[in-house]
Amino acid sequence: MDVFSDLSFFALLIRHGSLAAAAQELGVTAPAVSKRLAALERRLGVRLLQRTTRRMSLTPEGDLYLSQGARVLRDIEELEARVSSGKDTPRGLLKIGATLGFGRRYIAPALSGFARAHPEIEVQLSLQDKPFNLTEHGLDATVRFGDLPDARYSARVLAHNQRILCATPSYLAAMGTPRSPAELGKHRCLFIREGDEAFGTWHLQLGARRETVKVQGPLSSNDGEAVLHWALDGHGLMVRSLWDVAPMLRDGRLVEVLPEWTLPPADIHICFPTGALLSAKTRALVDHLLAVFAPHRKGRHGNW
Q: Containing H/E element for 240?
């Protein structure tokens, strides 16, 4: 019985998302992968995956095996690295995930300096519109916005950031400036669709007072850059992070609306696995990004 081999196999299978893709990575046939998964489930006495002809999903036991197993594998990998090298030198492959817009504008330039400072580290940056899951995507670290989803992971605040309501001066001149959250329902609003989450509902807070407003509008997208272009073209109000629109607020292309009200938090974090054996390469990355973004941790809005 090779427990560590089974853990590695299962993590690889989930990362690839299908038996066929995992088989290609392993250089075996899909039936061979299916047979090995069945043997693993027999050994454990539980079903780890629910499988249909089109998709597979983790059972609660499978989710536990994946998350806790990933931690065991990381600890073993780091233990062997320390024992074999006798020192703690940042080296090896480092996989990082971030969102598209922020990743392109801020994380990629920051990693350029990191790569020069650590030539023994090979950096792989992955960007997508949705937040990454560290375990499922096999990442060492990920940059994400807002509340953290899982207590199994550690995080440091890279930058303070606020979401705001804004629109162009021309739109506000034509349609009027909202004076309260209730007035937003009368305006054309632009939406960012995120996964399967409901959109068209905005949450605002003023001290202890909370308002939930159902809004509507002509345009929506899963891409924040597209929504920003529509707002700049005068199509309506939008919710956007300060890191993205601060220059446009300064030069007058956009105007903040209801500035006394706040929206759900959007601080920017670097997320990484919790554990005493956090790798030297990940520690080096966290330290580097904290230094790069230090100016953006000053003040509630992050000095964007």
A: strand 238-241
